[in-house]
Specification:
With about 350 residues, the protein is of the alpha/beta class. Helices cover about 40% and strands about 20% of the residues. The two termini are about 25 Å apart. Bound molecules: 3-isopropylmalic acid (IPM) and magnesium ion.
Length: about 350
């Protein structure tokens, strides 16, 4: 097993270090896993001027999986768009064709009270957002900012989906629903946008192959509302790139903290990129305050989806749950009055739980 480790910027290196401690425990138990670090995002820009350096892309191509931290920081926002950290991540997704982005939103019972929503609304929530990741307005051409003859500036992007792009991610959606509670809700904006009318049409076509999955549809504005009104109605949500970006941030807050949500981005093979859905949090970077659990849970997803070791994924997830059960809380998930610990202590607690769970 070969894993590329791309820590990136901000809190990325701090939380990646905690995930690596988990790998060390498994390695000490005899697991053969090779890890190699490379620069990406702002760190890539600082090193080579490119947010996705050639050597990094090469390493990723040669790896079974990529463990990704976070990218971005205010110091890079002044750079030309092509050199911004976000471009590094977007290009990596595109280059490796990581079109299926799995973003589970699960409320750990220990954290139900940490949500800004009432515990009785979110307790027991366990849903999966599947976001198409390599198409849509994120990559559509033409795009740009042009200057009209009268001197006015006009910004434009293109929302575009081909039928094959929709079909392949729809299959991932239906197959995921088959492994869960057999319900798939497809989210679009077909009342206004043609690109998403096609989305709905193709999803309906694909659904014929999955008669055991109950398909429903929601317009994205309604979906945003339903997510806070009654989130437990959902099993799997399937949606496009931009809607999925927005809805997955919303869903993360149901779970108490965006610091808890892992994600997997998969291509048609078993190769995947695993990253927390949160960003680089420049405001707390370097302070040892960040919650490493989304990163550690992303590592668990890596074992499940790319490395064919669901047993290790289960163990890591159990260790995280045991750690929460034991009362360990970083600032983002602590209730008023609860003791807060830092990034390293949280990582240490998970490592201890992992070892204990195995003993
Ligand atoms: C995400 C992020 C990225 C996205 C940014 C960093 C480019 O928000 O993974 O959700 O918009 O896809
Ligand atoms: Mg996002």
């Amino acid at each position: 097993m070969k894993v590329a480790v791309l820590a990136g910027d901000g809190i990325g290196p701090e939380i990646i270090a905690e995930a690596l401690k988990v790998i060390d425990v498994l390695r000490a138990e005899g697991l053969h896993i090779e890890t190699e670090a490379a620069a990406v995002g702002g760190a890539g820009v600082d090193l080579t001027g490119d947010p996705l350096p050639e050597a990094t892309l090469k390493l990723c191509r040669e790896s079974d999986a990529i463990l990704f931290g976070a990218i971005g920081g205010p110091q890079y926002d002044v750079l030309p768009r092509e050199q911004r950290p976000e471009r590094g991540l977007l290009r990596l997704r595109k280059e490796l064709d990581l079109f299926a982005n799995l973003r589970p939103a699960k409320v750990f019972p220990q954290l139900a009270a940490a949500s800004t929503l009432r515990a009785d609304v979110v307790a027991g929530l366990d849903m999966l957002i599947i976001r198409e990741l390599t198409g849509d307005i994120y990559f559509g051409e033409p795009r740009g900012i042009r200057i009209e003859a009268n001197g006015e500036r006009v910004g434009f992007n293109t929302m575009i989906y081909s039928e094959s792009e929709i079909r392949r991610v729809a299959h991932v959606g239906f197959q995921s629903a088959q492994r869960r509670n057999h319900r798939l809700c497809s989210v679009d904006k077909m009342n206004v946008l043609e690109a998403t009318q096609l989305w709905r049409d193709v999803v309906i076509e694909v659904s014929k192959e999955y008669p055991d999955v109950e398909l429903s549809h929601l317009l994205v504005d309604n979906a945003a509302m339903q997510l806070v009104r009654n989130p437990r109605q959902f099993d799997v949500i399937l949606t496009g790139n931009i809607f999925g970006d927005i809805l997955s941030d919303e869903a993360s807050m149901l779970t108490g903290s965006i610091g808890m949500l892992p994600s997997a981005s998969l291509n048609a093979g078993s190769q995947g990129l695993y990253e927390p859905i949160h960003g680089s949090a420049p405001d707390i970077a370097g302070k040892g305050l960040a919650n490493p659990l989304a990163q550690i849970l992303s590592l668990a997803m890596m074992f499940r989806y790319s490395l064919n070791r669901a047993d290790l994924a289960d163990r890591i997830e159990k260790a995280v749950e045991d750690t929460l059960e034991a009362g360990y809380r970083t600032g983002d998930i602590a209730m008023p009055g609860e003791k807060k610990i830092g990034t390293v202590e949280m990582g240490d607690a998970v490592v201890r739980a992992l070892k204990q769970g195995h003993a």
